[in-house]
Amino acid sequence: MSAERDVVSRQAEPGAAIPHRVAAVRGRIADACRRVGRVPSSVTVVAVTKGHPAPLAQAAVDAGLIDLGESRVQEMLDKAAQVRGARWHMVGRLQSNKAKGVIARATLVHSLDRRSLASALSTRAHDAGVVQRVLVQVNVGEDPAKAGCPAEDALALVAEVRDLPNLAVEGLMTIPPLAPRGVDQAEVSRPHFARLRRLRDRARARWPELAHLSMGMSADFETAVEEGATIVRLGTVLFGPRRDQAYGTRTVEEAR
Ligand SMILES: *Cc1c(COP(=O)(O)O)cnc(C)c1O
């Protein structure tokens, strides 16, 4: 990573390194797919641009990654006004009083984790005359530091969200617990990914539209693809490290 960082800092154009990184990520996803007999087109990359400026987000879109993710509403709206040709995903913890900001602006909200947020989103979607697509975020690791509804409550929450008139629930999302220092994140994540997949399979047996599994970040996306991810959310591997304190998480580098 440090060699890539040097390349970035020497580039005159912001994001000049992005096409190479996109190609590398696509290759790694294709390899993971091959190992488990999947087709690469069944995996969507959401490029998470939080903490990075709009020109870098534009470089990702220009390199073919039109799905961009943000974890804060205002940052998403600011960048959406500056970046052409993107579809925006809300991947971060969402307060009910910010629900209005994402409706019809985010193609998919990944972080619906409680009933009060579901009803706020549905009300705002109704006001705007749209049906908002959402995923239910599940805390499969029962990690007190992570958002998400408890796994044992997930199917009941899905059932209630399905009954709301202006939400369409299309799958599940998770963020596994952070690996302890010196431990491989992918191996810590794997059983949590497998657990989310089993939950999704149970849900889909009742409700066929629950097709999506949003799981896998820079440190563990190949494992997530092996375990069935249909959406991976990638920041660091595409854009390099960011100052993450404001988001309450550690960077991949710090986690090691
Ligand atoms: C920041 C973030 C990501 C991307 O993390 P990286 O490790 O940089 O790839 C993915 N998902 C969510 C919910 C995030 O907040």
Lay out the secondary structure.
Blueprint: H1 2-10, H2 18-36, E1 44-48, H3 54-62, E2 67-70, H4 73-80, E3 87-90, H5 99-102, E4 106-112, H6 115-128, E5 132-139, E6 149-150, H7 151-163, E7 167-173, H8 185-206, E8 212-214, H9 221-226, E9 231-234, H10 236-239, H11 252-255
Parallel strand pairs: 1-2, 1-9, 2-3, 3-4, 4-5, 5-6, 5-7, 7-8
The structure holds pyridoxal-5'-phosphate (PLP).
Query: Which molecules are bound in this entry?
Result: pyridoxal-5'-phosphate
Low-confidence stretches: 245-256
Helix content: 40-55%
Main β sheet profile: 9 strands, parallel
What is the β-strand count?
A: 9
Radius of gyration: 18 Å
Mean pLDDT: 92
- Cα shape: globular
Report how far the terminal alpha carbons are from each other.
Answer: 13 Å
Task: Give an overview in words.
The chain is an alpha/beta fold and 256 residues long. Helix content is 44%, strand content 17%. The chain contains eleven helices and nine strands. The protein has helices spanning 2-10, 18-36, 54-62, 73-80, 99-102, 115-128, 151-163, 185-206, 221-226, 236-239, 252-255, and strands at 44-48, 67-70, 87-90, 106-112, 132-139, 149-150, 167-173, 212-214, 231-234. Strands 1, 2, 3, 4, 5, 6, 7, 8 and 9 form a nine-stranded parallel β-sheet that branches. The model is unreliable at 245-256 (pLDDT under 50). The structure holds pyridoxal-5'-phosphate.
Quick overview of this protein structure:
This protein has 256 residues and is α/β, with parallel strands linked by helices. It is built from eleven helices and nine strands. It is globular.
